[in-house]
């Protein structure tokens, strides 16, 4: 039974441990590769569905993670979207664990750093954070990091809060189909990213699935020129959910869930 790499002429093929030839996007040797569906040959030196594949047959995705809020809150206001006369606060202090007392920005940073490590393990070597904490940074400044890197996916990491301690669950936030700042093509990608991250996250964690919130009231989303979503991982205002999100074992599930969502968004097989 054939397994692993095989070269026929100038083309490379890959067979799984089951002996089946691989097709489509696959993670092989820690790299994202595309194998043509008809022939099974690996693509090299060309663009596949807008993704540049290099001479070694690898596509190097760029992912930017934004740990929401900071220990130093950016003061002042900034436009809601490009050219908008509506102004919003550059940032807020975020919420706080009702049971643990942990500040939201600390949870967001812990998850973002762990997620960066996990994504790099999965072959997403070009995974970046918008900041590493300890300084004021506005929503627009965060998003400009993703725009400047021409990210293939931009995920904003947050935790929720409510006046009701019974509120629970996870949701993602996406721009609307009528956004004055986001065109149809980018909206479609935003929607897919929001859906993939939310579905995979709740599947891995068991946290209740709320919904995708479609709104044009999020400065960071509105300024993004790349596929973007904001994940509210759970409610820090819910005592049980707050404690759960501080549990190291559960945090691993949170990270796995988001990473699985990235794989799902890019249609990457294991």
UniProtKB/TrEMBL annotation:
Its EC number is 3.5.1.28. This is N-acetylmuramoyl-L-alanine amidase. Residues 83-95 have a biased composition (Polar residues). CDD domains: MurNAc-LAA. Residues 76-95 are annotated as: Disordered. InterPro entries: Cell_wall/Cho-bd_repeat (IPR018337), MurNAc-LAA_cat (IPR002508), N-acetylmuramoyl_amidase_3 (IPR050695). GO terms for cellular component: outer membrane-bounded periplasmic space. One of its GO terms (biological process) is peptidoglycan catabolic process. Residues 143-263 form the MurNAc-LAA domain. The keyword Repeat applies. SMART domains: Ami_3 (SM00646). It comes from Candidatus Blautia gallistercoris. One of its GO terms (molecular function) is N-acetylmuramoyl-L-alanine amidase activity. Keywords: Hydrolase, Repeat. SUPFAM superfamilies: Cell wall binding repeat, Zn-dependent exopeptidases.
